[in-house]
Amino acid sequence: MSTHDTLQEKGYPVLDHDQYARSQPADDFWAQIKRTVNGKPVTEEQIALIVTTIKNNLGLHADDVLLDLACGNGALSTRLFDRCQEFVGVDLSSYLISVARQHHEIAPRYTFQEQSADDYVRTEPQPERFSKVLCYGSFSYFSAEAAQAVLQLLFQRFSQVEKIYLGNLPDRDRLDLFYKENRPSDAELSDHASRIGIWRSKDEFAALAHAAGWHTQFVSADPRFYAAHYRYDVILSR
């Protein structure tokens, strides 16, 4: 049985995630990971803003060991290498990981691995080596079960992790600011395999994180960020 067969059985939208990336130009990194607005890659100014926001909210330092869950093709990850001692990026797409390894990997310090987020945090043999964790723009695509498992396992196994930054989460309380018409059904809004994934209110997310042991600090997106009107970020700490 292939890795993709196993992931599909667990409910991951593998074919969409992987095949969409394969359908894009080989050198269009932002299109491959859907970092787009109206089908066009976001500007360099927007990418720089995202990178600065990640670095500031994680408080990255040169001695940090960073884990990036659902890292895609590493196009964003590589811009964080200058602020961490070591880095591991994990994604379930074999194609995106192949792109990351070809264009961005600098082994042995900065590496990429094909695996789902919950499988990785369950099986990583040296979880205590990590100090910070990032998941940007991807957490809403984890199934409810995977999201719960990831947060619980990070708290239980990754004992030296002092901060987690989850960025670009769709806010269910601001749904109407995104869907001006043709509002999706509640079932679609709770479906991780839908176009934007699971929409959660801040209260819903706080309850999810608290159940896993984490304290939450919600961060308002920079108003210059293209999706600031309907998304939020959160910092988790012990």
Task: Please describe what this structure looks like.
With 238 residues, the chain is an alpha/beta fold. The chain has one domain: Vaccinia Virus protein VP39 (Rossmann fold). The chain is 36% helix and 19% strand. The protein contains ten helices and nine strands. A seven-stranded mixed β-sheet has the order 5-4-3-6-7-9-8, with helices on both faces. α7 links the parallel β6 and β7 (163-170). The longest helix is centred in the N-terminal third of the chain and has 15 residues, at 44-58. Mean pLDDT is 88; it is low at 1-15.
Write a compact overview of the structure shown.
The chain is an alpha/beta fold. The protein has helices at 3-9, 14-23, 29-32, 44-58, 94-103, 117-123, 144-157, 175-178, 186-189, 202-212; strands at residues 36-37, 40-41, 65-69, 86-91, 110-114, 132-136, 163-170, 215-220, 231-237.
Low-confidence stretches: 1-15
Q: Determine Rg (CA atoms, Å).
A: 17 Å
SS element count, helices: 10
Structural class: alpha/beta
- Per CATH, the architecture is 3-Layer(aba) Sandwich
CATH H-level name... which superfamily? Vaccinia Virus protein VP39
Count of spatially separate domains: 1
- The shape, in one word, is globular
How far the N terminus sits from the C terminus, by CA atoms, comes to: 38 Å
| Average of per-residue pLDDT values | 88
Sketch the major β-sheet: 7 strands, mixed
Compressed to H and E, one letter per element, the order equals HHHEEHEEHEHEHEHHHEE
Instruction: Provide the spatial order of strands within the biggest beta sheet.
Output: 5-4-3-6-7-9-8
Strand content: 15-25%
Total number of strands: 9
| CATH fold call | Rossmann fold
Quaternary assembly = single chain
